[in-house]
Structure formats: structure tokens, C-alpha cells
Amino acid sequence: MDKKLPKSVAIIGAGWLGKSLAKSLLAKGVDVVVSATSSQKVASLQAENLPATIVRAPDCLSDSLLQCQAWVICIPPGLRHGRTDYPQQIQALAQFAQQASTKPKHIVLISSTAVYNGLQGEVNEASKLNLNGDKVAVLHDAENKLLNADIEHATVLRLAGLFGYDRQPGRFFKEGRLISEPDSVVNMIHRDDVIALIECLLQQADKPAIVNGVSPHHPTRRAFYNKAFASLSKGTAEFTEQKLPQGKQVQSNFTATLAFNYKVNDLLAYFDNRASLEVEHG
Description:
The mean pLDDT is 91. α1 (16-27) crosses α5 (191-202), α3 packs parallel to α4 and α6 runs parallel beside α8 (267-273). The chain has a single domain (8-165, 188-215, 249-263), classed as NAD(P)-binding Rossmann-like Domain (Rossmann fold). By secondary structure, it is of the alpha/beta class. It contains 9 helices and 11 strands. It is globular. 32% of the residues lie in helices and 17% in strands. The strands form 3 sheets. The protein has a 7-stranded parallel sheet with strand order 3-2-1-4-5-7-10, with helices on both faces. The protein has a two-stranded parallel sheet with strand order 6-11. Strands 8-9 form a two-stranded parallel ribbon. It has helices at 16-27, 39-47, 86-98, 136-147, 191-202, 221-231, 253-258, 267-273, 275-281, and strands spanning 8-12, 31-36, 52-54, 70-73, 106-112, 121-123, 153-159, 161-163, 188-190, 210-213, 248-250.
């Protein structure tokens, strides 16, 4: 396996994940360019010593991206807000990359394990998708826009629920809101593990097309959110009755084969050992 990170990486979408990834790569000596959709956000990123440029696919694309050996696309799909142009955004970026004379050698698209919606039981990267499931068709279309492009290495990283630092699971639900399917398991991943996994992929000589990023620990939603609420002194979470015979449990064939070492590999112990420190320090 190639153990070297690329010399330069463009991070398209410097939000909660992208900005932290940029800082991690810079600390390792990688040249980084990050993008935002407004001049105000670019100025904010530059104030944190992050080289930033405006990118609004498909209309506003920056040539500075083409100077980077690898890209990580962290654009949120916006499906919760009714947006439907996510596949077109990914297609525009892929076309921009593949038509350039100095195109990136590797593009990682941050996708979501919501692409497995509508499935039950254990699922992995090889599972057949239910395209009638909520959000599935749009996510799958976006993924294929990249995977079918003329890029030397294209990887789709399907992330489970993200948490850590200022994004604490005990705050995911407003007070009084009942949490559904308490006996189904959670599929989660800490931000530190996401960053480590992306950096691992950027170092891979043989890059798989699709990778699930998810903790190997799958407690029930009842156990997980009770712990999460208690860690924030919010009392006990309240739940609806279980309706599904079982939920989906997302597994990662890639990280299992690689023996990837998760920093947060016990989701319940996290609330005892790390959560309070992360809340305090952000």
C-alpha cells in the first residue's frame, strides 16, 4: 500500500467536516485548497489561515482546484431542504475535472449510508439498493455521476451518522420529541474516525469504488440515546414503540479487511470518556 498522502488536496465544501479535514491535512504538510459558496465564507476561512476559493457548482468553478492531485467533495446534498440538484452538482465537478489537462488523480465523494434506506438487517458495500427508499435514488444518481466519470481513481465514501465535539447526539432531538425505533441499532461514526478514514483512502494504492464509514459498534437506539442524554444531564430520552421488525445495520467490508483502527470503537463508552471533554473544548 502507498503510505504517502497526496502533495495537494482540494476540499470542496469546507463545513463541519471539510474544515477539520483541511486542518488535519495541513498539519501533515499537505497543500490544501478549500472552497465555500460565498465571499463572506471564503474570508472567514482565510482568517483561519485556510487557502480558500469560491466554488458553486455548476456555474462557478475555480481553476485552483485543478492544481491539486486529489479532491474530497463534501457538498451536503440538501435533501432535507427540498433541493434536487445534488446529482447535477457532482456531475459538473466531475466534468470539470475530467476535461482538464491536469485533472486530479483521485476524487473522494462524501456520500451517506442513507443510500441503504428501505433495507433491513445487515448491509454492506455490495448490498443491492432499494431505489424506492427515501433519498436513495438521488444519492445513488450522484454517486454514479462520479463513478462513471473518466477519473483515474474515484471513491464514494458513504458515511453513517456524524457526531463529535460540538455535534453531540444528545442534542439531535428537541426536548419532548419522541425517538423512533428504539430497538433498532445505530449506525454512527465520530468525526476523528472520518478524517482518519479519508486520509487512509488518500494513501491507498488500490482504491475501492465504494466504502462505508461506520463504527463497528451498533448499540440499540435506546441504549445510545439514553447515554447521550445522560452525558448532557438531559435526563432520560423518550421513545415511541418499535414498529419495524428490525432496522438496518451498516457494515464496512473495506475497513474490516484493512483492520482500520477506530478511535471511537465503543459508542457507549464514548459518553463516559470523551464526550464531556469534547463539549467543553469544541
